[in-house]
């Protein structure tokens, strides 16, 4: 696995690079020998260092963690400990997900971003009363079970995820609530509820 190590407005130093690369490589290989790539970003604030780890296990499965401490090596150790915990939790399910992900049907959707920072009537479409469109983006909607969706949502630290529920082919949405819980919207199943991470998956 190729690992990129960088510092945000600071020099990471060869000692940190060697330590972080060796430990992340070892931690990843314990569970996923064929991980695609990884990155480590070291940041420094006034009082502490923060390390962000992002590893692409497959084309559609990523793990992102972070850790902070007054020492750069300690901050990395905290981040990699969280990383290993997630890998242990999902080892079996991610393996199945990797094997089946290429067989899943993928749908495409369009996202429209509206400009809500407007003064008075500037830029407003007078006919529709809508703010102007800043951009339109296309993204993939994967077909998966709710268990797989929660797994992807948690691993990639997403704020929202739309997916096609494989059980009834309807569109579902997961989103991160302000209180930290995961909201699950299932119009076809008439569900709008909070989902605990452990409710849909077991600890290993």
Question: What key phrases describe this protein's structure?
Answer:
single chain, 204 residues, alpha+beta, Double Stranded RNA Binding Domain, SHC Adaptor Protein, 2 domains, 6-stranded mixed β-sheet, 4-stranded mixed β-sheet, 4 helices, 10 strands, 36% strand
The percentage of residues in β strands lies in: 35-45%
Q: Kindly state the percentage of residues in helix.
A: 25-40%
Strand line-up in the sheet with most strands: 5-6-7-8-9-10
The third-level CATH topology of the largest domain is Double Stranded RNA Binding Domain
How many strand segments?
Answer: 10
CATH class of the largest domain: Alpha Beta
Category by helix and strand content:
alpha+beta
C-alpha-based Rg, rounded:
20 Å
Detail the poorly predicted runs. Answer: 106-116, 120-126, 196-204
Order of helices and strands: EHEEEHEEHEEEEH
Overall mean pLDDT score? 75
Shape: elongated
CATH architecture of the largest domain: 2-Layer Sandwich
The total domain count is 2
Q: CATH homologous superfamily of the largest domain, by name? A: Ribosome hibernation promotion factor-like
Word description of this protein:
With 204 residues, this protein is an alpha+beta fold. The protein has 2 domains: 2-101, Ribosome hibernation promotion factor-like (Double Stranded RNA Binding Domain, 2-Layer Sandwich); 106-200, Sigma 54 modulation/S30EA ribosomal protein, C-terminal domain (SHC Adaptor Protein, 2-Layer Sandwich). The protein is built from 4 helices and 10 strands, in the order E-H-E-E-E-H-E-E-H-E-E-E-E-H. The chain has helices at residues 14-29, 72-101, 146-155, 197-200, and strands at residues 2-8, 37-44, 49-56, 62-69, 106-114, 133-144, 160-165, 171-176, 182-186, 191-195. It has a 6-stranded mixed beta sheet. Strands 1-2-3-4 form a 4-stranded mixed beta sheet. Helix 1 packs parallel to helix 2 (72-101). It is elongated and about 55 Å long. The model is unreliable at 106-116, 120-126 and 196-204 (pLDDT under 50).
């Amino acid at each position: 696995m190729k690992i990129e190590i960088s510092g945000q407005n600071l020099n990471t130093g060869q000692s940190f690079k060697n330590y972080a690369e060796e430990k992340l490589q070892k931690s990843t290989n314990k569970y996923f020998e064929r991980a695609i790539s990884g990155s480590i970003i070291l940041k420094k604030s006034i009082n502490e260092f923060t390390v962000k780890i992002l590893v692409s296990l497959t084309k559609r499965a990523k793990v992102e963690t972070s850790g902070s401490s007054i020492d750069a090596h300690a901050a990395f150790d905290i981040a990699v400990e969280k990383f290993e915990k997630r890998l242990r939790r999902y080892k079996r399910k991610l393996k199945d997900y990797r094997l089946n992900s290429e067989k899943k049907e993928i749908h495409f959707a369009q996202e429209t971003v509206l400009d809500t920072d407007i003064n008075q009537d500037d830029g407003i479409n007078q006919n529709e009363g809508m703010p102007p469109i800043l951009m339109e983006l296309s993204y993939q909607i994967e077909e998966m079970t709710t268990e797989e969706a929660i797994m992807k949502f948690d691993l990639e630290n997403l704020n929202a995820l739309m997916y096609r529920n494989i059980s009834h082919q309807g569109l579902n949405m997961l989103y991160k609530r302000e209180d930290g819980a995961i909201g699950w919207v299932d119009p076809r199943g008439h569900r709008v509820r909070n989902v605990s991470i452990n409710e849909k998956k077991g600890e290993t």
